[in-house]
Structure formats: structure tokens, C-alpha cells
Amino acid sequence: MIRLQGKGPSADYQALKASLSRRPTMTEFFRSTSSMPDMRRRHGQWWQLVRDQDNLSATETACFERHQAFMKEVESTSMTRSFKAVLLESLLDNDGFRNPPSVDELAAQALDVFRRRRGLVGDIKKDLRDLDHVSLGKWVAYWKGNPINAWIGGNKARDNRHWFEVRDGRFQPTLQVTKEEFDTFQDMIQELVDYRLAAYEPRLPKPEAEPTSAEILPFNRPQTINADSDELPYFPDLRIACGHFRSGRTDVDENCRIAPGHGRLDPGRHFVARAIGDSMNGGKHPVLDGDYLLLELIDPAHAGSISGDTMVVERQDAGGDDQYLLRVVTKSPDGRYVLKAANPDYPDYEADEEMRTVARLKEVLRENEIGFA
Hints:
Elements: H1 9-20, H2 26-31, H3 36-43, H4 46-52, H5 58-76, H6 83-93, H7 103-116, H8 136-151, E1 164-167, E2 170-173, H9 182-200, E3 230-241, E4 246-247, E5 254-258, E6 270-276, E7 292-297, E8 310-316, E9 322-331, E10 337-340, E11 349-350, E12 356-365, E13 370-371
Parallel strand pairs: 3-6
Antiparallel strand pairs: 1-2, 3-5, 4-9, 5-13, 6-7, 7-12, 8-9, 8-12, 9-10, 10-11
């Protein structure tokens, strides 16, 4: 693996390009250990970074200018499972932006994608995982529910924009791709899909081994909660570290539902993320690895007393990535703030000027208290 110097995405890009003697792909850039959140903060999205390096052809530039909103959606759409990316790969395999396939054809192609990407099979519900003997009828019905429903906007009532539709039994893009740009467009989308699948793979459990400690979380969705529940933002790529500071992302979010009984919840202040690690697994209210955390954003000017509270603390690492840590904030007699772990196996941190408290832990949610529409 090529490791870069951490001088920013442009410098990382140029170093990688020099080492490869060609334009790097997004997957290569991701695997080079450059910061993807920093790249998006500075350039917005991958193809804009490439453009800023004067590495897009005239045809690619025109294609990007016409379809950059969709490209950004592909690059950063929330994925708690691999299905959205698998669907796009299936569509590309079928030349589906030029000749939209039937829903049945698209689902059958997705089955072939899973057969060649066996590592993703754990995302499929158990009774359909025998890919070589699965009932095609059951598979098509399953695939229609998700991700076809997700890509046509069925999972986002609050969002009027959808990129695909099912019309006359065919899965059709709503964006208009001209005949002249089809090949370039599909190549650019394929590069983004390759990245999404490469970035997703570390989430999966290792073969023949159980996920351990703070590196892998099972992405099983809890049950669906009824419509009387509160709807809050959920950040699948934000990991609240219960161990040591760990990078996370808040540029991708979706909605979850919280069962009643947690007081007044405001989607402008309250959100859900998952714990990773076991440094807070102790005391009267332990936080376990993989727990869903109900959190409340705080305004530093109006946070009130935080001493004794369990807080999310943010800082930036040397490369500019945001990192998050869950700790109990305590105040020493001499006025210093110390971030204490509930598990004695983990060290305390003394707060410094580079750290700031961003959210207060309101509750640890049980699995029957959270669901997804």
C-alpha cells in the first residue's frame, strides 16, 4: 500500500499520480490512506478534485458539469448495506443507462454480482444466501424491496429528488445522458462504484472469525418502529469511539425512528450514532461496542455544566480528519478537565485547547427502541 505524506488531497493526488505514472483511480486514492473527508471538504467530490488537477479530458469535463449532482450522490449516498452499489454495478453490467433493463433482468444481474463478490453475501437475508440455488422469484421480490425502492425514492419521503424510476417494468434513470457521452459517463460512474464497494468491504466481518473490539460493527438493522415514533438523523459512518480517538464522517446521513418514551426530541439537536470499542463498558450505565447512542448537540455558549456528563469530544488529527471520543468529563480541583473512561483498562485524557465537546449522551438505545423506515 502506498502511504502519502498527509499534506492535503491535492499533494496526495500528485504524489500518487507520480508513483503510478498515470492518473490514479478513486479506489487507489482511498487505499493510499489520504483523507477522504478532507478531500470532500476541500473539493466537494472526487471528480472535482481530478478536475482541479487538470486531469479531466474535455469530454469528461462536460460530462461532469452535466451530471455532478448524480455523481456526488453515487459517491456519498448512505449505505448501511452494499445493495445500492451492487445495483449500480448491475446496471452498468447491463449497459443500463443506455438500454434500461427490466426489473427482473436487473435483479438477476445483481445475483451474478453477488456470486462474483462472495464477501458481500452476509448483507443478504439468511434464507437467500445460497446464491447457487436461490429461487429467482424470491430473489426478484427481495431486490424490488431494496435497493430498487431506495433508488427510486421510496425510502425518502422528505426528498423529492430521485434518480431512477420504474416505468413499463423497466428500471430507468431520470437523468438525461446524451448518446455522445454514454461511454464516458458510465466509465466515470463505474469508478465511483468501485470505490464505494472497496470502502464498504472493511465493514464486513472477517471470514470464519467473529468481529472483534473496535474495528468492525455488524450492520444489522433493528426492527421497524411504527409511525408514531420520532424521526431523527442517523449517521452510519460516524463512529463514537469508546477507546481512543477515531476518525468519523458526518457528511452522510439517513433517518431512523425512535420509539416514544425518550422525552421531546428535536431532529435539529438530537441524532443517533453508534459506539465502537469498550472503554465505556463499566459503571452503572455501560456503553457496549455497537450500541446505538441517542445524542444531543450542544452549543458551547449554552451547554451549562458538563462536569460528570458523558460527552462526545471532537478534535482533528494531524491530517485534518475529525475524530470523536466518548468520555465522562470531570473537573479537577485545579480547574483542569479530564476525560475519564468507565473501563479501567483505558487511560484518561487531559482536555486541551484542540478538543471541544460537541454532544451529550442522552441515552443508550435498546434495539427494540430504534428502527428504520
